[in-house]
Design a protein that fits this description.
mainly alpha
């Protein structure tokens, strides 16, 4: 079972470009389809790992491994997630000086951008559907993203506004 866990996360780590959120659909498909976790458990793990410091994909792989096989399962899944990226970056670093100014390399990275955006948007929408967010609730993150991207507003101001808005909403509408 440890080898299966390790190889599953090696596959995910090797064939995903774009970071943790881009890995999310692959992790979900592998873990849920194999029956290792239910969809609800996976959504819970996703929520918990978002609140932890560190690399999202590694955090979720550690949780999956620990839930399935305790400490050694967590180690296998973490190594499976980390090693492919480490080895790929090491190889790129060794040969980067030879291809730094290559037009084709630059075009390849520009071509990957839309795919990475899609790999990040899909899990966001899947999660929004799973936790049953309304269309009005979806407007806030879209508005925040547009303010940052088009308006040039600092994310720090968006976070501060969200904190203030959450406190006001909590005090006014959710009297505890």
């Amino acid at each position: 079972m440890y080898w299966t866990l390790f190889m599953t996360f090696v596959k995910i780590g090797t064939f995903t470009i774009g970071g943790g959120y881009a890995m999310l659909p692959l992790i979900e498909r592998e873990v849920v389809d194999k029956g290792w976790l239910s969809k609800e458990d996976f959504i819970d793990l996703f929520a918990v790992t978002q609140s932890l410091p560190g690399i999202f994909a590694v955090n979720i792989s550690i949780f999956v491994g620990y839930k399935l096989r305790k400490t050694w399962g967590a180690v296998c899944c973490a190594l499976g997630t980390i090693l492919p990226s480490f080895l790929i970056i090491l190889a790129i670093a060794l040969f980067f000086t030879h291809v730094r100014d290559n037009v084709w390399v630059e075009k390849a990275f520009k071509g990957l951008r839309p795919a990475v955006v899609a790999l990040i948007v899909v899990p966001c929408l899947t999660t929004a559907r799973a936790i049953k967010l309304s269309h009005v609730q979806l407007l806030l993150p879209v508005a925040a993203a547009l303010l940052i991207w088009i308006g040039g507003v600092s994310p720090a101001w968006i976070i501060l506004a969200a904190i203030v808005g959450g406190i006001v909403y909590g005090l006014k509408y959710k009297k505890m």
